[in-house]
Amino acid sequence: MTLDQDTINTILLFVITTTGAVVSAIWLGLILWTWRDMQLRSRDPLARIAASLMVAVLGIFGIMIYIMLRAPETLAEAYERSLEEEALLQNIEEKPVCPGCGRPVKEAWQVCPYCHTKLKKPCVECGEMLDLPWNLCPYCATPQPMPQPAESPSAGRRARRRSRSAPQAPVQQSPAQSPQYVDDEAYEPVEYIEDDGY
């Protein structure tokens, strides 16, 4: 079986056409892939055009250069990473907020300047600011007096009416006394530990 020149030319033409079509498809695919990849990594339209032109002109070498020079993460990945970092920073830096209005407050504030909610109380001995529920100062180990319940406005009016109608007794001046605590037996002596390992 011998192949004549026309058959060989037809086979060669088919192979060259098929190879050219495949190479052209790969070349166009690389250009489109570069455009889309650059779209995910940059908002700059000039950078997308430049990267696509580089791949179009240099072909496989252009794609190699693009892969070496492109941004290491997409815009979506960068956004997710920034959200994660922000969430971690918020967890680390727990900023105090007012329990009344929810606005941010400073650690040393005694009352909220927005809604006037009492945030802290000063120690009766050393003056350091303490959280409201604390009944012992961690700075000087002084027991704190229990807060007296605030009387309602109607109870105050009733007490004033009773005091007006009742005969006035002479007021006796008593010498200054130390503050009385609600339950002196509830407080145990504080034990100081010299070297506790902290």
What would your notes on this structure say?
There is one protein chain. This protein is rod-shaped. A hairpin with a 6-residue loop joins strand 1 and strand 2 (129-131). The model has no long low-confidence stretch (mean pLDDT 79). A two-stranded antiparallel sheet has the order 1-2. Among the domains are: 7-77, no CATH class; 95-147, no CATH class. Helix 1 runs antiparallel to helix 2 and helix 2 (45-58) runs antiparallel to helix 3 (60-69). It has five helices and two strands; from the N terminus they run ααααββα. By secondary structure, the chain is mainly alpha-helical.
Beta fraction: under 5%
Give the strand line-up of the largest sheet. 1-2
Question: Structural class of the helices, strands and pairings?
Answer: mainly alpha
Low-confidence stretches: none
Question: Helical segment tally?
Answer: 5
| Biggest beta sheet attributes | 2 strands, antiparallel
For the termini, the CA-CA separation is 97 Å
Radius of gyration: 41 Å
What characteristic shape results from the CA principal axes?
rod-shaped
**How helix-rich are the residues, as a percent range?**
40-55%
Q: How many strands in all?
A: 2
SSE order: HHHHEEH
Instruction: Kindly report the average pLDDT value.
Output: 79
What can be said about this structure in brief?
With 198 residues, the chain is mainly alpha-helical. It is built from five helices and two strands.
